[in-house]
Q: What sequence folds into this?
């Protein structure tokens, strides 16, 4: 059993083909810009939800996150079989940090491989190395977040050190896994020339990086945070311009990385 | 685009819709003064056709490569008083209404007042039909249970096959001679009737040759006056083309297109058939000419493109004949429905996509015109590059091309009894209707309002709007002990109304057989010549009559809601539920909240709802399939709305799915507007639970924001979504690529969006030309963001 907070069909930015993405609840990081604040706490949590109809507002309590078994999840995944087969897609496990429920994740990955589905794991990289080791045989693609290279800044903006994360990335690379690097580009946080060149420098030491996805930060989080009784730390009005993103993309491309904006 | 195509395109876009009295006056003159004593009706019709084609104005537009107009000028639209006579009031409405007006000048109005109306009033085919219909038929028709296609237009839904590329009219006249020779006056009681029909066909064939030669004469005249040497040579060449075709089989690419265009003009001048005729498998039919000429060095890709573009403009010069009343509402559009098919399979079952397929796709993208409309036929054997190219055009947001599943179409046709070669020669026409091109008469008889029948069922056969008993007394809903009781009552009402509808359609068909045969169209569709039988009398090799079901999403969600809230849980009595609908949910807001947000909906791959779409389909299919018509056609189902879902919603109170009174019902087999919240893969899964292979076409509309198609990889994924749907036997899918904000802005500032074309439901139209309700409805349709 594990806690899942969302299942998204027709996911087209989480790996090859058309995918179904399973969102596992709980995350050891608390990034300022997190778009899914409901994913941070590991347990199901109650929130107030507003639904509007004909000008009237209906407020109700909704539980985010549900404890489910592997077979329940796999039943949902099976609904997309034809679409996955036709598109060369598969199933993606995301979060939160899916590695936080590593036993459940391992069961899901094994069940997926048994059905022949392509599997991706979308991870922050913060987990025990032996847990990564366990899932490696059942994971076709890692979507690995790389946020900030400077350890102090990483601590400031995510609440944790990046040392273990970088070690794990190297570990996956050494184990010949296919990796797609995902960088949330947040203005004045990690878009500095220094951070970009440090990132490129580090990635060049690795093997198996098939693509770099640059994910421009968008303001969508604030009202969501309020619903969860959380404080939203991002200042208003900071979005990276198209030109700035393009410039960063060029830097990666010049170093030989296949790079996409938006994944 | 070459400068002259640019100019012609502009002229076509800027031309003003006008009513032309030319055809109406000519046909009136013919019936007044030229009726031959002893001529059979079919020969009269052929002679009337000849009289029009001999005397109508020959219009040749400056710079064009394909010649011939239906009216005296581009967008001058003829009328068909023998089918329906416009009253002076109709003409005034057409002249002054806000949307898609047709200008009526004083001369035209006077011609109607003094000549046309006095002669035809009370004597048109529409008058015959309305007189012949039963009280039950009128009751249901007036309540908005169904519409009647043939009330103002002729039954013509068909598409040209490849015959005209092999045979000239002189060859067809030879075939007619052979048919006459083989008539058996000793044993065949219909031999004389057949002889008259063949005589009429011969007159019609000679007429179209004559019509072409009038164009040759005019082209030669123009050539003499022409100062530009290049254009002079071109005019003389075109004159030669019009001498050669349609008299003889075409020898060149240019001749093939000009031949088709004369045939097109013949079909749409003889009568005003629904869903105007089209050339069908254009890439397949033209490719042999293209290949031969390109290899011989007599044609370049650029020249072929220019001729095709000139051909495209001809279609756009033709708005559909103006309709009035309910028929105007059910198809609130004035485009005809010429749907060019690209791709698909060859007769031997192999991939038909060729170089010309891609050239035609380029033409579609560059011309960006409403008419002709276009579609791609996608078989699993067609290359990915082909569907990707088509999706790239879809991305530009003018609703074309729509995408059809060739492999499903072939199975639909063979299930209906067509041989596999004829099936592979088929495709879709109109909005989404399946047909065997060149060999089938497949007539649409009208839309059928499934949600309204549930409304009548919930009132024991009474239409709650008029309090009139229009249906069967299937019992007071308070007495329904189970959901099955309700469903059975609904089934009985569907059966009753389908019976009424089919009885009416059979009479209407007989009226057409007796009064309005179509000898010209009969030349084009096999086996009319060989059988000596008119298209409208069963001369085609295959004959089908469709009844188009509307509101599948609304009826499904309504049944789901009733089952859940009245019978399974239960939260409310059926009597109170019906009261809530009558009150339009006033004082029942919480119920409506439950219906909208807390009730399973079709379109989410949720069997709790989707089980009912299957139930409704079985009821509808089993009720219709098995009936036959006077011309020997089989009645069959398809599921498409054109714009009728707006009209059908307007005649209804609120419905049990939470839809408010008067709002549109769902269109085609698309989910109720906004009800699909689980993404497009869930939509196609739900839609595929309907057995498409037992229909003659279904319509699924998906709206995407333009941002979704941002790069090649995203386009590939849309292609994969289409392939997935087609692997599940889905018939058709189309994409509307606009965001809601753009549309809202277009509503506020129509002047800035004159070129905004949106996919409505099986066809595209200018957003500005749509009624405000339909505009709103399109805005509401869920925009699926692939974020």
A:
């Amino acid at each position: 059993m594990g806690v899942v907070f969302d299942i998204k069909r027709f996911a087209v930015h989480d790996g090859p083909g058309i995918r179904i993405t399973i969102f596992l609840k709980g995350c050891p990081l608390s990034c300022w810009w997190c778009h899914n604040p409901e994913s941070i706490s590991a347990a199901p949590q109650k929130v107030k939800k507003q639904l509007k109809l004909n000008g009237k507002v209906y407020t109700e309590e909704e539980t985010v996150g549900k404890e489910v078994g592997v077979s329940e999840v796999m039943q949902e995944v099976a609904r997309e079989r034809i679409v996955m087969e036709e598109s060369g897609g598969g199933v993606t496990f995301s979060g939160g940090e899916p590695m936080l429920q590593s036993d459940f994740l391992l069961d899901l990955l094994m069940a997926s491989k048994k059905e022949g589905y392509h599997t991706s794991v979308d991870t922050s990289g913060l987990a025990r190395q032996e847990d990564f080791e366990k899932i490696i045989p059942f994971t076709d693609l890692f979507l690995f977040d790389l946020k900030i290279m400077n350890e102090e800044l990483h601590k400031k903006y995510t609440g944790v050190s990046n040392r273990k994360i970088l070690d794990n990335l190297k570990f996956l690379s050494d184990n010949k896994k296919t990796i797609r690097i995902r960088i949330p580009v947040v203005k004045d946080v990690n878009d500095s020339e220094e951070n970009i060149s440090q990132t490129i420098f580090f990635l060049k030491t690795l093997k198996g990086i098939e693509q770099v996805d640059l994910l421009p930060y968008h303001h969508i989080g604030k009202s969501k945070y309020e619903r969860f009784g959380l404080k939203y730390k991002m200042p208003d009005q900071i979005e990276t311009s198209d030109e700035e993103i393009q410039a960063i993309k060029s830097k990666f491309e010049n170093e030989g990385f296949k790079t996409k904006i938006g994944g | 685009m070459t400068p002259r195509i640019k100019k012609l395109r502009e002229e076509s876009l800027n031309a003003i819709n006008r009513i032309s009295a030319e055809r109406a006056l000519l046909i009136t003159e013919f019936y007044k003064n030229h009726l031959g004593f002893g001529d059979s009706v079919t020969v009269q019709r052929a002679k009337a056709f000849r009289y029009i084609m001999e005397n109508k104005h020959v219009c040749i537009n400056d710079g064009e490569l394909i010649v011939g107009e239906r009216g005296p000028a581009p967008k001058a639209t003829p009328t068909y008083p023998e089918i329906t006579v416009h009253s002076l009031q109709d003409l005034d409405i057409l002249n002054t209404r806000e949307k898609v007006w047709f200008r009526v000048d004083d001369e035209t109005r006077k011609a109607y007042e003094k000549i046309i109306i006095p002669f035809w009033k009370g004597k048109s085919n529409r008058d015959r039909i309305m007189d012949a219909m039963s009280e039950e038929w009128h009751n249901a028709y007036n309540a908005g249970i169904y519409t009647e296609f043939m009330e103002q237009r002729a039954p013509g839904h068909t598409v040209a096959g490849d015959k005209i590329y092999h045979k000239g009219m002189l060859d067809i006249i030879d075939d007619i001679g052979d048919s006459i020779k083989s008539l058996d006056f000793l044993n065949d009681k219909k031999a004389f009737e057949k002889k008259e029909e063949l005589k009429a066909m011969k007159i019609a064939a000679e007429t179209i040759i004559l019509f072409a030669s009038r164009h040759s004469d005019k082209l030669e005249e123009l050539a003499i006056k022409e100062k530009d040497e290049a254009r002079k040579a071109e005019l003389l060449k075109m004159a030669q083309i019009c001498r050669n075709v349609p008299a003889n089989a075409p020898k060149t690419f240019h001749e093939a297109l000009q031949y088709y265009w004369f045939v097109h003009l013949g079909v749409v001048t003889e009568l005003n058939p629904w869903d105007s005729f089209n050339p069908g498998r254009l890439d397949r039919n033209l490719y042999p000419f293209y290949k031969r000429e390109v290899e011989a060095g007599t044609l370049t890709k650029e020249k072929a493109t220019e001729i095709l573009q000139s051909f495209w403009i001809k279609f756009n010069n033709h708005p559909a004949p103006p309709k009035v009343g309910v028929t105007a509402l059910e198809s609130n559009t004035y485009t005809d429905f010429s749907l060019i098919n690209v791709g698909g399979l060859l007769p031997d079952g192999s991939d038909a996509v060729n170089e010309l397929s891609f050239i035609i796709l380029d033409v579609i993208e560059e011309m960006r015109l409403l008419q002709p409309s276009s579609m791609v036929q996608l078989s699993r054997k067609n290359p990915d590059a082909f569907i990707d190219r088509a999706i790239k055009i879809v991305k530009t947001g003018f609703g074309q091309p729509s995408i059809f599943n060739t492999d499903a179409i072939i199975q639909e046709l063979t299930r209906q009894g067509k041989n596999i070669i004829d099936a592979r020669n088929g495709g879709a026409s109109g909005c989404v209707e399946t047909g065997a091109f060149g060999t089938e008469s497949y007539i649409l008889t009208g839309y059928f309002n499934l949600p309204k029948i549930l409304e009548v069922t919930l009132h024991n056969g009474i239409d709650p709007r008029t309090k009139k008993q229009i249906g069967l007394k299937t019992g007071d809903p308070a007495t329904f002990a189970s959901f099955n009781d309700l469903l059975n009552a609904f089934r009985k009402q569907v059966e009753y109304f389908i019976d009424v509808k089919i009885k009416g359609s059979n009479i209407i068909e007989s009226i057409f057989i007796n009064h309005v045969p179509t000898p010209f169209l009969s030349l084009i569709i096999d086996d009319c010549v060989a059988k000596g039988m008119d298209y409208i009398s069963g001369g085609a090799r295959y004959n089908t009559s469709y009844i188009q079901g509307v509101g599948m999403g609304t009826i499904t969600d309504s049944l789901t809601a009733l089952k859940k809230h009245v019978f399974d849980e239960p939260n409310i009595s059926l009597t109170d539920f019906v009261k809530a609908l009558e009150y339009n949910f006033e004082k029942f807001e919480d119920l409506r909240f439950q219906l909208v947000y807390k009730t399973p909906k079709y379109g989410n791959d949720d069997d709790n709802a989707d089980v009912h779409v299957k139930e409704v389909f079985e009821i509808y299919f089993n009720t219709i399939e098995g009936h036959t018509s006077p011309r020997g056609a089989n009645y069959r189902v398809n599921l498409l709305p054109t714009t009728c879902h707006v009209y059908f919603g307007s005649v209804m109170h609120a419905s049990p799915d939470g839809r408010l009174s008067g709002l549109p019902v769902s269109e085609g087999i698309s989910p109720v507007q906004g009800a699909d919240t689980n993404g497009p893969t869930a939509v196609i899964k739900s839609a595929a639970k309907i057995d498409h292979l037992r229909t003659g076409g279904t319509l699924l509309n998906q709206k995407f924001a333009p941002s979704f198609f941002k790069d090649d990889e995203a386009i590939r994924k849309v292609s994969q979504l289409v392939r997935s749907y087609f692997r599940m036997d889905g018939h058709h899918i189309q994409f509307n690529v606009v965001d809601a904000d753009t549309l809202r802005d277009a509503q506020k500032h129509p002047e800035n969006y004159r070129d905004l074309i949106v996919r409505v439901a099986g066809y595209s139209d200018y957003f500005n030309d749509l009624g405000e309700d339909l505009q709103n409805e399109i805005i509401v349709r869920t925009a699926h963001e692939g974020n």
Q: What stands out?
A: Chain A has a mean pLDDT of 92. The CA atoms of residues 125 and 168 of chain A lie 6 Å apart. Chain A has nine helices and eleven strands.
